[in-house]
Design brief:
With about 325 residues, the chain is α/β, with parallel strands linked by helices. The protein has 11 helices and 14 strands. It has helices spanning about 5-20, 20-30, 35-45, 65-90, 105-120, 135-140, 175-180, 185-190, 230-235, 245-255, 285-295; strands spanning about 50-55, 60, 95-100, 125-130, 145-150, 155-170, 195-200, 200, 205-210, 215, 225, 240-245, 260, 265-275.
């Protein structure tokens, strides 16, 4: 058996283990299910052992398969590292980069950065998907993900913080003229509140207390909306108070379409991170995007450069 066939069999085996089925492995590799199954079968025949237990619903490793799987990972990691090192030395940013972005943040904030990277690197092809679902990079074959909130502690991922998400309570001037401006947290409970909903459940508002800590304010929303930009638009159109990230509301605040309600300080509620699968060497196409995101958003992202200095926010003067 030649080296190409050996590597093909090992790759089919590893992808089958990681995805849990020949069908998913085939989709990741861009081949047919039967080709994947045959590659694994030929590998088992050559080795003289059964590597996988097969049922109609799933695959599982045999004891011999577990040991061989670990060996395959080391071999493939060495191969990937060698290829990454070669690409780094060639200083070539090329190939297809699969990126997953949060829907609203991705469109409004990350895409302008990625567009600039693509223009500067004509041999780089971007394959960008948008979802607020937490994707599995390894299983879904994604090279890079931007994640809002807790990045998680995944053994197969590494990453870097690119910004801190800050949020404010705000409303349209017309709404505040009509309903009055709340002067305390308790007053907020008597206002029309707009809440971001996830899976049909409104999320609490994280506010700062008098001791500099944070607490969750559970509001009874007049309206709940499951899309960030739609929630912002509802606030701009005077439907009520909203708790919005500054990356989403910053431009409207600067232009006066939204006004920050001065009953809570600017809240740093979660990190914004970029993550990629763990490897020995960061490939040039991943590195150039990571570096661009860090450069664009650190130390203070552009949407916060005026807001964090605003006099009407206590503690930021």
């Amino acid at each position: 058996m030649n080296l190409h066939s050996q590597l093909q069999g090992m790759s089919a085996f590893v992808h089958s283990v990681e995805t849990g089925s020949f069908t998913a492995a085939a989709a990741r590799m861009g081949v047919s299910k039967s080709a994947t199954g045959k590659s694994v079968a030929r590998l088992e025949e050559r080795l003289g052992v059964r590597l996988l237990n097969r049922t109609t619903r799933s695959l599982s490793l045999t004891a011999e398969g577990q040991a061989y799987y670990q060996s395959c990972l080391k071999i493939l990691d060495e191969l990937n590292a060698a290829e990454s090192l070669l690409a780094s030395r060639m200083h070539s940013v090329s190939g297809t980069l699969r990126v997953n972005l949060p829907v609203s943040f991705g469109r409004l904030c990350a895409m302008p950065v990625l567009t600039t990277v693509a223009v500067r690197n004509p041999d780089l092809d971007l394959d960008i998907s948008f979802t607020d679902r937490r994707v599995d990079l390894v299983e879904e074959g994604i090279d890079l993900v931007v994640r809002l909130g807790d990045p998680g502690d995944h053994v197969n991922l590494v990453g870097r913080s690119i910004a801190t998400q800050r949020s404010v309570i705000c409303a349209a001037p017309a709404y505040l003229e009509r309903k009055g401006c709340p002067s305390s947290i308790e007053d907020i409970r008597h206002h029309d509140c707009l809440a971001f909903a996830r899976d049909g459940r409104p999320l609490p508002w994280m506010i700062s207390d008098q001791h500099g800590g944070q607490k969750a304010l559970v509001v009874r929303p007049r309206h709940q909306i499951g899309h960030g930009e739609a929630l912002r638009d509802a606030a701009v159109n005077g439907l009520g108070l909203a708790y919005l990230s500054t990356w989403l509301a910053g431009e409207d605040i600067r232009r006066g379409r939204l006004v920050m309600v001065p009953v809570a300080t600017l809240t740093e509620d979660s990190p914004i991170s970029v993550l990629w699968p763990r490897s020995r060497d960061l490939s040039p196409k991943v590195r150039v995007v990571v570096d661009a995101l860090v450069s664009a958003f650190m130390p203070i992202p552009p949407w916060d450069q005026e807001i964090v200095r605003a006099k009407e926010i206590p503690g930021t003067q």
